[in-house]
Amino acid sequence: xxxxxxxxxxxxxxxxxxxxxxxxxxxxxxxxxxxxxxxxxxxxxxxxxxxxxxxxxxxxxxxxxxxxxxxxxxxxxxxxxxxxxxxxxxxxxxxxxxxxxxxxxxxxxxxxxxxxxxxxxxxxxxxxxxxxxxxxxxxxxxxxxxxxxxxxxxxxxxxxxxxxxxxxxxxxxxxxxxxxxxxxxxxxxxxxxxxxxxxxxxxxxxxxxxxxxxxxxxxxxxxxxxxxxxxxxxxxxxxxxxxxxxxxxxxxxxxxxxxxxxxxxxxxxxxxxxxxxxxxxxxxxxxxxxxxxxxxxxxxxxxxxxxxxxxxxxxxxxxxx
Amino acid sequence: xxxxxxxxxxxxxxxxxxxxxxxxxxxxxxxxxxxxxxxxxxxxxxxxxxxxxxxxxxxxxxxxxxxxxxxxxxxxxxxxxxxxxxxxxxxxxxxxxxxxxxxxxxxxxxxxxxxxxxxxxxxxxxxxxxxxxxxxxxxxxxxxxxxxxxxxxxxxxxxxxxxxxxxxxxxxxxxxxxxxxxxxxxxxxxxxxxxxxxxxxxxxxxxxxxxxxxxxxxxxxxxxxxxxxxxxxxxxxxxxxxxxxx
Lengths: 321, 246
What we know:
The complex is a heterodimer of chains A (321) and B (246). By secondary structure, chain A is α+β, with helices and mostly antiparallel strands. Helix content of chain A is 46%, strand content 16%. In chain A, helix 1 packs across helix 3. Chain B has 246 residues and is α/β, with parallel strands linked by helices. Chain B has a three-stranded mixed beta sheet. Chain B has a three-stranded mixed beta sheet with strand order 2-3-4. The mean pLDDT of chain B is 91.
């Protein structure tokens, strides 16, 4: 029962359509300017008229437009389409350094047992995925094979049952940190309940990727995770393990940008807060003027029943962007 | 004795500190745990000085020194230079040098008698190193890498080099340096030895990811254990490696 004949190392080639991947700082700034263009050109339909009125009009919009236009000229000549292949693998011990690098800021600079936490993720082969560059097969240098794996790690996702790992030092430190950092008392009580009494039904959803990772990777990544969780509830060798993957809740710890003038932006912010975490990570497309925003941590609890909705929304988000 | 430490969740102990037989430099800004680990081992013997170099915390990789002197890159500010001159013992000559390759810690690996340098270092810099540090200077590579300061950790009693160093290279370097050398790793397989650990004649500090095997190799090659017999590493490790005899 439950033998699906899954190969041990599942590889899913995510062939991306050719799109402008910003791998250099120059290309990134062009992308930024290009995506900023619709907003800044909208209020100023006739740039030529404004420039003739010296000292009257706000000099900023025409300048902005001019800059973008010139950069678009350059863009036509200099843009490069880069084809990239990304492969999804089960976590293995050799990925230690790559995953550790991705999770460096997981608990804001607090010194904790990050090595132990990474070990937990890597030991859980059945649920969890790492994303590596697909160009490895060509670079077959005998000694460097192991090292190439480490350096090529682009993203990691996993779900850890808080009850199953409750005795590990890293999980204890993580729980303590989350409770300490919670500013709202009622939220803290609920969080304490989740982390302690109901820990066996709570999964810590760890998802981290490099900043400029192409967004097309994200829906398959989350699909992979939730599929693995449901397969694990059937495939795991012991009943205890099978039950440990029947999550009722997922906890996500992530970063958001929150406007400094909290009241004004609360309405706008709550839209983003209600959506699952990946929307938050893609805030770069949404927020331009970072000086009005401060970086904050966000802890969210998501009911496991909502997972199918999450997957649909993920797909639609990519489809429309 | 070798101690495991971490600087703000980073295991690169050799990046944020510089340990010699006469003084120890530590980067500012880390948690007090980092600083106190050094104080606990060293405070009654040598001064532990908190500093920055060129406004950065990567002091271990920017400066090169031994008990005779300390060489600083040209990017060091005047205040930092003055602070170091004031805090270090008088017999330590603190000198700021004009060298294009400003990460001196990556370019120079030295103990109190001998130094290995990057092959492209200026002639004047080489002479300054010989003068200020009181060492004999050799231009060398380690396992084909020119950044000798990064891939080698050296003390007066032993040295640890990049894991891919060949036997011939090990022999050659060992003859030059006149100390026993071992090719190994630190911080769970990291090859950048000098970034992962810092060592002097009686103590070493390694990153917190260093495995027990790596730690015992370090203690053995740098002779940090009380009974520094070559066979003791084999005997002691045998007990932990062999579960039962069939």
